[in-house]
Amino acid sequence: MKALEFNGSGTEYFKIWIVNILLTIVTLGIYHPWAKVRNRRYFYGNTELDNANFEYHATGKQLFFSYVIAMILFLAYVVLSQVSIVFSVAFPLIFIFVLPWILWRSIKFNLRMSSYRNVRFGFDGSLGGAYATFLGYPVGLFIAFIIVMAVIVGLIGSVMGMMTPAIILASILGLFFYPAYFAMINKISNMYFINGAQFGQGDFSTELNFKTFFGIAMKGMGLGLLLSFLAMIVIGIIAYLTIGLEQIAMMGEQIQQMEEGAEPDGMFLALIFGVYAVLILVSIYVAAYFKARHRTYVFGETSLDNSINFESTLRANKLFGIIMTNLLLMIVTLGLAYPWAVVRLYRYSIESINVGAPDGLDGYMSKAGNEGALGEELGDAFDIDVGGIAF
User: Fold this and answer.
1) Core-most of 94, 208, 248, 294, by most CB within 10 Å?
2) How far is the CA of 327 from the CAs of 17, 47, 272, 340, in angstroms?
3) Do the Cβ atoms of 66 and 377 come closer than 8 Å?
4) pLDDT at 369 over 70
């Protein structure tokens, strides 16, 4: 196994980042496509595998036309939604229906514009598969759940004559549906993307199962609930030691007074802030756990022509530490540390990928031909990212 490497630095990226921001402001946003290309070329060009770097071949000019179309559509929506309620509702629905096509073209374009050792990546997933993955399954599963819940609540409510047990049962089932829903969506989206991806003449492939994703989701949810429970106990103990049981009992009155417009005291605000802060920390850690476990599973089940294998060494604790220190850096520097934060996170994400290629990648040849970029660039113009897909 050979690990990917990233040779860039926060200082180098800061120069690109600040110039991109200034030029985008001066040009009233027109420079945005070129800024995006410069960013990607920097990160691709400094990412190496076996002493060879990746390349990004798109140009700002290729993205500009679709970027302009996207901006015109956005401005039209903002203006027309102020004068027409029908349009304000219809436009989002139309956009949702078109979104799978935009994602499909964006994936095809971005992979086609990427290469390693002069061998292009590609994507041959079908448009129908995109609609099933990004629209059919998410909407269909959600509607099925609503129907099942309605039937259960209706049956139990009519048999027992009480709605409370039915609502309790529906809530319990909802706790299982939430992780099951996202487990199925993760399975479908990862398989669609990976099984459609290509490298020259080679095809990526994977076979993922729902059970593993569901197990990760349930463990993540359980971890989140456990950490939240423990955190609330700690906060309760600290509150008891600092302000006393009597003051804690008065918290309910303070909440009622806040609803009536009264100003809460500082200790109460500090306690509320602490609760929110802890819940945010727990959410970030659970998200890091999901990311690490998903990548470990998906990479381990992915291969290129059944001869090149992949491995992820991403770990939740280290990822959480990087995210938290990045947030602190951003707060302390009022956002100026953004380039260093991005580089730190990208470096760890990339360098935790190992590739097992005993025979190397030289034998793969790039496929001839380029596809038009018009529709594909719309994905970039709308800043649509498929980064949620683990691969």
Assistant:
1) 294
2) 18, 24, 21, 11
3) yes
4) no
